[in-house]
Write a structure and sequence with these properties.
single chain; alpha+beta; Protein Transport Mog1p, Chain A; 2 domains; 7-stranded antiparallel β-sheet; 5 helices; elongated
């Protein structure tokens, strides 16, 4: 038992070596616009990562990985930094989205990295191998440390103005060949695609962007099976409607509002909570629920409130359940309504996840 405790202690030391490498990977960053900050959306079996102004998104299979928040300085302060961990298998996957202007070539990159490690007194990488894994330009290497094996892959993807730098690490007493095979399999499963433009929206594997007249764009992550209809009335605010052609029907209506010349300032998040509560009280007499609770909705850039109510006596062709809310996303106020029937709680969950993923982008891409 004591021997097992000693081995686990050494494995933790090896894991911390990975963290130290991250600190030496880059410098700290000042305050950054939300449009240039990493957006991570958790789906059923994957994580979808992007930066709103980037043309790319990355899909990472879960497979035991959980998202970790916070930074410890250095490169981890980067607003486009991500960090996932599988504690059961001692696997860490982290990285950054950056402009491809920051990348010269893989040899220069590696030379600068290892110089920084040496200045920091870190162990020298062993068994270094430059190779291609799927479409990733990869560097495989090991770090010598007592009590176990510490194997790494540093990989790069450059496309459409974006550079994705990803770092995979595994710590274990298993043979190095097995550890390398595990990391190579993980990297091969990570997909990078470009957001394809279709009219006023960008739609690819759930990532969608809607152009707003003289007010940037709104990005949402919705199930790929959902159909959307984007309306931009001349004298009114844009609306987005989501439906599906196959399966039980539902309806999601989203209205986008912003302030401007001759318009009232947008309400604060606290004021939105009061408005949502008032809406809940208005529908309560026709609802099954005696009391209707107002719940908080919070994403990386979105903050607001919503409620769910059940119609006591829906007419033929009407929906039975309604989830309605308001939230602030950047310079936008977003009002949303989700209409469903019995057995569609998953639609409500997906709709709320979509609203949490919202980003308001103003400016050029990277």
């Amino acid at each position: 038992m004591l021997g097992k405790q000693i081995n686990m202690h050494k494995l933790r030391i090896l894991s911390w070596l990975f963290i130290i490498l991250l600190i030496f990977s880059a410098t700290s960053y000042a305050s950054t616009p939300k449009s240039e900050t990493i957006a991570i959306n958790e789906m059923e079996n994957t994580y979808e990562l992007t930066v709103p102004i980037s043309k790319l998104f990355m899909t990472l299979p879960k497979k035991g990985l959980s998202l970790k928040q916070g930074s410890i300085g250095g490169g981890t302060d980067n607003p486009r930094y991500f960090y996932f961990e599988d504690k059961a298998r001692n696997i860490i996957i982290s990285g950054w989205f950056e402009s491809d202007l920051n990348f010269t070539n893989i040899n220069t990159f590696w030379e600068n990295e290892t110089k920084a490690w040496k200045r920091g007194g870190l162990p020298e990488p062993k068994n270094v191998l430059f190779t291609k894994i799927s479409n990733w330009d990869a560097i495989l290497y090991d770090i010598t440390a007592p009590g176990g094996n510490n194997t790494h892959i540093r990989a790069h993807w450059l496309q459409s103005g974006t550079w994705i730098d990803i770092h995979l690490s595994i710590t274990s007493n298993r043979p190095v060949t097995e550890l390398k095979a595990t990391l190579e399999s993980l990297l091969s499963a990570i997909q990078v695609k470009e957001k394809s433009v279709h009219g006023d929206s960008v739609q690819e594997s759930g990532i969608r962007r809607y152009s707003l007249p003289r007010h940037g764009s709104l990005q949402l992550s919705a199930p790929a099976s959902w159909s959307d209809d984007y309306l931009e009335p001349r004298d009114n605010f844009p609306t987005i409607t989501y439906t599906q052609s196959n399966g039980a029907p539902f309806n999601i209506l989203i209205t986008l509002i912003w302030s401007g010349k001759g318009r009232s300032p947008l309400p604060s998040v606290d004021q939105l909570k009061q408005r949502v509560w008032q809406s809940a009280e208005q529908v309560r007499p026709q609802a099954v629920e005696k009391t209707i609770g107002v719940k908080e909705l919070k994403g990386t850039a979105a903050s607001g409130y919503y409620f769910t109510a059940t119609d006591r006596a829906p007419k033929a062709g009407e929906f039975k359940h309604m989830t309605q809310g308001m939230m602030r996303v950047g310079d936008l106020m977003v009002i949303f309504t989700v209409l469903t029937n019995d057995g569609q709680s998953n639609i409500i969950d997906q709709a709320l996840a979509m609203m949490k993923s919202a980003y308001h982008t103003v400016g050029k891409g990277i």
